[in-house]
Amino acid sequence: MLSTYSLVFVLFVALVIVDGQTFSNCGGASDQIKLKSLAISPYPIKVPGPATFTLDVDVSENIVNPLQTKYDLVATALGFPVKIKCENCVGSCTYDDWCKACPTCPCPVNAGNQKMVIAMNFTSSIPIGSKATVKAQIDFLSATGQTGCVLMPKIEVRK
């Protein structure tokens, strides 16, 4: 299984509603990777426990490796935001090569429509109490300057 926060790795073109959540592209219109649809099961995510993410991704051009991926994750519980630290490659981390961070994902990332099914196992080390909302922003930068960004402002997590 992938690390807890490898779930968020694609870029969103427009506003997408999934399971009552709002997702958006926080990069520019020229982003090369765009998420068309996303399903999370179970939702809300239960911690600890497994979750499956099914993504339909449109890639406008071949992405030149390595694809650096930077995660910024903030959990809000009881009204207090807490940045989820990078520990053992989980949390608000920067990965120098997406293909190493997501070994089950198609690599290299080629142009075209791709469906990705990613299974993950969430650990109990997420600082949430009994429930929390996690805000996730993921930024991408390829070896040749291809960029992208995804923002998920409200991911519901429960213990």
From TrEMBL:
Residues 1-20 form the signal peptide. Pfam families: E1_DerP2_DerF2 (PF02221). The lineage of its organism: Eukaryota, Metazoa, Spiralia, Gnathifera, Rotifera. One of its GO terms (cellular component) is cytoplasmic side of plasma membrane. This is MD-2-related lipid-recognition domain-containing protein. GO terms for molecular function: enzyme activator activity; lipid transporter activity. InterPro entries: GM2-AP (IPR028996), GM2-AP_sf (IPR036846), ML_dom (IPR003172). Keywords: Signal. Residues 22-138 form the MD-2-related lipid-recognition domain. It comes from the Eukaryota. One of its GO terms (biological process) is ganglioside catabolic process.
